[in-house]
Design brief:
By secondary structure, this protein is an alpha/beta fold. Helices cover 55% and strands 11% of the residues. It has 3 domains: 201 residues, no CATH class; 162 residues, Rossmann fold; 75 residues, no CATH class. Helix 3 packs across helix 12 and helix 11 crosses helix 12. The structure holds adenosine-5'-diphosphate and magnesium ion. The site of adenosine-5'-diphosphate (ADP) has 11 residues, from strand 4 and helix 15.
Length: 589
């Protein structure tokens, strides 16, 4: 499918939706209104759960806060529903931010669990507030008016609902393809990698959570003025579960999945309510849940990722042009060669009783390649984790270009100019090579959530994309920028990590076993690349087991054993050292 076809199909769909009130019966239009409102909530869950990997059962409660806020403003206080919208968004956003700030730092299922508790709490709170009508709710909510036009009938509010939904889809689409959107997409699979690229993962999670709550708030506002009545029941946890189901059935990683899922579940629920009483008149509501569960199990068997990716699997791949030429991103000036760049002093790291790094000191001058070698378990990777702030030291100090970074956060160290790769490759396999490398440009770019959503980042984005392509070409992976990273052989995944690190324009490159899994030719190419990086003034610290590779590449070698420093010197001297031969080379080198 080429982009033109995609645009044509999209335009046809938008037309079809726009003309719906002309060809649908009033009842179907009101069903479409529900689908639109629910799809807004599901869209929030696509971003939160499908993209960001956070599960929330509390979206219906956010929707409820917004619905009650606008009901109070318009029906009880007699003010404009538009003021209701303002209060709905402010209140929902504030509650989500507070809730997120408390729970998002917790690992595991705490967020999901707390959203259940929160959903329950809201239901009972609304039910027991006499000012808000207790369990019978608030009636006589006025319709929304635009100018002198009152949106009273289903056909009238239809346009507002679908306009807001389509705007939400468009902004989300833009966002996901921007700097912050890529950070959101990278959240799944742990913090270590994103933080090493300078991303504040907590902040990205929090904003994603607030965005999803705000989408639910729009839905709640529309819902209140569409039904002209609110009560606690439509916002209880059952509904929260249904929203999650919509996002999952539609395809929680896909924006369109929100509409498809909301449509499917709403229509299904509707027809189950219509036909079930005919088949089993006496059982009613109970059976509905059984039918639903059965369908859900079938769905999990056959289209686990959701309907959208299932269908998309049968469509031809979209063809995409490689990024265009652009101005280069701003670049650092590398420090003068030979200046002291990094000093580690008496660094120690304990894991319980185990001393993984024991009183290790070394330094590194600008422009040098230093090889760190030692048997498995010697503490090399732990040393790297200390330098990059991935782990705190138990004792010791680390300085990087005249700054004490001993207790600095990982992302601060990344911003200061240390870029790394991981011994156990940390990529996002479901993102393209280009997007993975674009993650590396995070510290060199600025666009925030709003700039991304409203496409105000065009120039920077173009520059970043070109830079990412350039780095891919530099490491020899430039021919298929849109291939998914997970499809690469492991050796090339390591090389892709190097491209990502280079995209950060680092001062110091820290590589943990980059040549592992590479074939001989690929190793030679990698060695050439590293040499040319050194020529350009980059400083490199490398752990590598292939002795030939290390000896021919580095200026200096530093040997660790059992967490301690064994010796250091130029490659020839280290190779000749009897202790090294015994400890590491088994006396054969
Ligand atoms: P190397 O990279 O030199 O092979 P590592 O730094 O990975 O060695 O490991 C050094 C020692 O520290 C090993 O004994 C390892 O089991 C231990 N270790 C590393 N990381 C952790 C951790 N997160 N928790 C507990 N022990 C660890
Ligand atoms: Mg290691």
């Amino acid at each position: 499918m080429n982009p033109r076809t995609v645009r044509l199909v999209t335009a046809a769909l938008v037309l079809l939706i726009a003309a719906a009130p002309l060809y649908l019966a009033p009842f179907s239009v009101s069903l479409m209104n529900y689908i639109g409102v629910y799809a807004l909530v599901a869209l929030g869950l696509v971003l939160l759960t499908g993209v960001g990997g956070m599960v929330s059962f509390g979206q219906s409660a956010f929707m409820g806060i917004a619905a009650y806020a606008t009901a109070w403003v318009s029906a009880i206080e007699g003010l404009s529903p538009w003021l209701g919208l303002v209060l709905a968004l402010v209140l929902t956003g504030a509650v989500a931010a507070a809730l997120g700030a408390v729970t998002l730092r917790l690992k595991g299922h705490f967020l999901s669990l707390s959203t259940i508790a929160w959903g329950l709490a809201i239901y009972f709170t609304f039910g027991n507030l006499p000012g808000l009508g207790n369990y019978s709710g608030i009636t006589a909510i006025p319709p929304i008016s635009i100018g002198s036009m009152k949106l009273e009938t289903s056909e009238e509010i239809y346009y507002l609902i679908w306009a807001i939904l389509l705007a939400g889809m468009l902004l989300s689409y833009n966002l996901l393809n921007s700097r912050m959107g890529r950070a959101m997409r990278a959240l799944r699979g742990g913090n270590a990698m994103v933080e090493s690229l300078g991303v504040n993962a907590f902040y990205v999670r929090l904003v994603t959570f607030v965005i999803s709550a705000l989408l639910a708030a729009f839905a709640g506002w529309l819902y209140a003025h569409m039904n002209r009545f609110v009560s606690p029941t439509p916002f209880d946890v059952t509904m929260g579960i249904e929203f999650l189901m919509m996002a999952m059935v539609g395809g929680s990683g896909y924006l369109l999945g929100a509409i498809v899922g909301a449509a499917l579940i709403t229509l299904l629920k509707n027809s189950v309510q219509d036909y079930l009483p005919l088949i089993a008149p006496s059982v009613g509501g109970q059976l509905e849940i059984v039918v639903f569960s059965a369908l859900f199990i079938v769905f999990l068997q056959y289209a686990r990722e959701g309907i959208v990716p299932f269908v998309a699997g049968f469509l031809p791949e979209p063809r995409r042009q490689p990024p265009e030429m652009a101005e280069p991103l701003p670049q650092r000036t590398q420090p003068a060669p030979g200046r002291m760049l990094l000093t580690a002093e008496a660094c120690t790291r304990r894991f319980g009783g185990l001393v993984a790094v024991n009183d290790v000191s070394f330094d590194l001058k600008s422009g040098e390649i230093l090889g760190l070698i030692g048997p498995n378990g010697a503490g090399k990777s732990t040393m790297f984790n200390l330098l990059t702030g991935a782990l705190p030291v138990s004792a010791g100090t680390i300085r990087f270009s005249d700054t004490d970074i001993t207790h600095a956060a990982q992302r601060k160290i990344a911003r200061a100019g240390i870029a790394r790769t991981f011994q156990h490759v940390k990529l996002r396999p479901r993102m393209s090579l280009l997007d993975n490398v674009l993650l590396g440009t995070y510290t060199r770019t600025k666009a925030g959530f709003l700039a991304g959503a409203f496409h105000l980042d065009r120039r920077e984005e173009k520059e970043a994309r070109y830079e990412a392509l350039r780095q891919l070409e530099r490491v020899g992976l430039g021919d298929k920028p849109y291939e998914l990273a997970g499809n690469l052989p492991l050796g090339n995944q390591r090389v892709l990590e190097i491209a990502r690190a280079l995209a950060a324009d680092p001062i110091l490159l820290v590589l943990d076993e980059p040549a592992a899994g590479l074939r001989r030719q690929e190793k030679l190419a990698l060695a050439n690349l590293l040499r040319s990086l050194k020529q350009e003034g980059l400083t490199i610290l490398i752990v590598e087991h292939d002795m030939e590779f290390v000896m021919n590449l580095v200026d200096r070698i530093f040997v660790m054993e059992f967490g301690s420093k064994l010796c250091e010197g130029n490659p020839a001297a280290v190779r000749a050292d009897a202790r090294v031969q015994e400890a590491y080379l088994g006396g054969v080198a």
